[in-house]
Amino acid sequence: MIFDAHSDLPTYVFEERRKGERNVLDRNFNRFFRGFITARVTSIWTPPDKRTHATTYGLETLNLLLKDVEESLNYEIVRRSKEMEKAVKSGRVALWIGLEGGEPIGESLELLEVFYRLGLRVLTLTWSLRNAIGDGVFERTNGRLTNFGIEVIGKAEELGIVIDLSHINESGFWDALEVTSFPVIASHSNAKALCDNRRNLTDEQLKAVAERDGVIGAVAIPSFVDRERPTLERYVGHITYMVDLVGYNHVGLGFDFVYYLPGWSGRSVEGLKDESGIPALIELLRERFSERELRGILFENFARVFKRVVG
């Protein structure tokens, strides 16, 4: 079983269904899941050209995802950990709904609650740019969380939404930890010590997530793995480094495969370009970790956080 903490599949579903396609996920089951992924956070990302109408885009994308799952035999949108467990036992893939950046909620806690009622359970506070919550890593100002951002975290705690600190800048990262006592995740981030990319986390940040009983999901984006030669082995190197630093209970997988997105560059991690590389990944992990540690990294660690925060 594998819990993948980050996927942009809603973008693909949106694009395909707008073309008139149906049963998008079912038709692509072997391509996107291959029987390996048993739980996955499907995050609604607002592309830069959609930011002026982010709420409309977010709701439309979520609606088309819900329609696609309703037509499906293989998937289930889950809102509680028990629902995930039941779906997995029945052979269905458990899909959690996330927002990759708070753009769709604008400056409204009411909209956050609307998305929650529609299934939202993971909130990545920012994408790489600024929104009403705070600054992403691409903003030169490195601003802190806004007053609204503080309110969003409080409301997320109240509702039972997992806070995701991937993409936020370092000032906002530390602000978020200051105002919440809940476990947090970094759904798709690697170790900055191994690859000096703005999107990766310093040792201090990795330790801080672990100290909150949170989890970091190792991401399979080439530029986050190695600037020169992004390979499966170097991806596993990030997992090993983070386990050595914070313990296996705080490391998981957040692949962020993007090969199906419009405008994909064609570059990918050698040996892990998509889900077909998962068996080789598991074999490499098995060489380095015990079966107990492997179960935690593959599934149980993220499942623990979701059970505690979402219920």
Written account of the structure:
The chain is an alpha/beta fold and 311 residues long. It has a single domain, classed as Metal-dependent hydrolases (TIM Barrel, Alpha-Beta Barrel). It contains 13 helices and nine strands. Strand 7, helix 9 and strand 8 form a beta-alpha-beta unit. Helix 1 packs across helix 4, helix 6 packs parallel to helix 7 and helix 11 crosses helix 12. The longest helix is centred in the C-terminal third of the chain and has 19 residues. The model has no long low-confidence stretch (mean pLDDT 97).
Q: What does the main sheet amount to?
A: 6 strands, parallel
Mean pLDDT: 97
Any idea what the CATH architecture is?
A: Alpha-Beta Barrel
Class by alpha and beta content: alpha/beta
Return the CATH class.
Answer: Alpha Beta
CATH superfamily: Metal-dependent hydrolases
Number of domains: 1
SS elements, strand count: 9
Overall helicity? 40-55%
Q: pLDDT under 50 segments (min length 5)?
A: none
CA distance, first residue to last residue: 20 Å
- How much is the radius of gyration in Å? 18 Å
Oligomeric status: single chain
- The number of helical segments is 13
Task: Indicate the overall shape.
Answer: globular
